[in-house]
Amino acid sequence: MTPKQKYRASIKGQVTEAKYKIKHNAGRRVRYATDPGFRAGLLESAVGYYISHRERGLRYVYFKKYGITWEERDALLAAQGGRCKLCGDHDHHAKSRGWHTDHDPAKKKGEPGFIRGILCLNCNTGLGRFKESAKLLEQAALYIRGTCHASSEDPAIWGATPCMVAETPAGRPGNQFCERVPFFG
Predict the structure, then answer these.
(1) Residue 36: helix, strand or coil by DSSP?
(2) pLDDT of 106-132, one tens digit each?
(3) What pLDDT is recorded for position 176?
(4) Burial tier of 42 (Cβ tally within 10 Å: 0-12, 13-18, 19+)
(5) How much is the pTM?
(6) pLDDT < 70 stretches in the chain
(7) Where are the chain's structural domains?
(8) Which member of 57, 107, 122, 180 has the lowest number of beta carbons within 10 Å of its beta carbon?
(9) Cα-Cα end-to-end distance for the chain
(10) Concatenated DSSP letters of 62-121
């Protein structure tokens, strides 16, 4: 058989196989729609496969993303006393979707300090919402305490922006705030 004949035979085989798959899958779709037993069996096998292979897939993704195994992550969590490194809560594993590995986005995987610790969902999300900026976190802490006016002399935090006392719509003194934090009263 010449190379040209081999090529034509392989193309013919591929077309025949594709036609078979189209016809076979159409029959399976009809059976799935009309036969509840067939549908239940397929769903049961799909769920069973997912449950049996879920952990293996998660372990692989975790290793590719962070460069450590689950066992190393569990050792980090044990070194933290089984608690969130930021808030110290120990019960987030049951409440949310498990513990979250906090990493430094400025470092590459495998570098020292790439993984900073194991956090709960709330703390990990909070760091992300503040763009992992220490300046923003300090401003938020001062805002919550209502003491940003006391630290306005620190140019590292506030720059040259003065703070002022706001008034509520009724004319009573309100919370003290910095001009950089908008007041919508």
Answers:
(1) helix
(2) 888 888 889 999 998 888 999 989 988
(3) 46
(4) middle
(5) 0.54
(6) 92-97, 147-185
(7) 67-132, 134-178
(8) 57
(9) 86
(10) HHHHHSS-HHHHHHHHHHTTSS-TTT--S-HHHHSS--EEEE-TTS-TTSTTSEEEEE-H
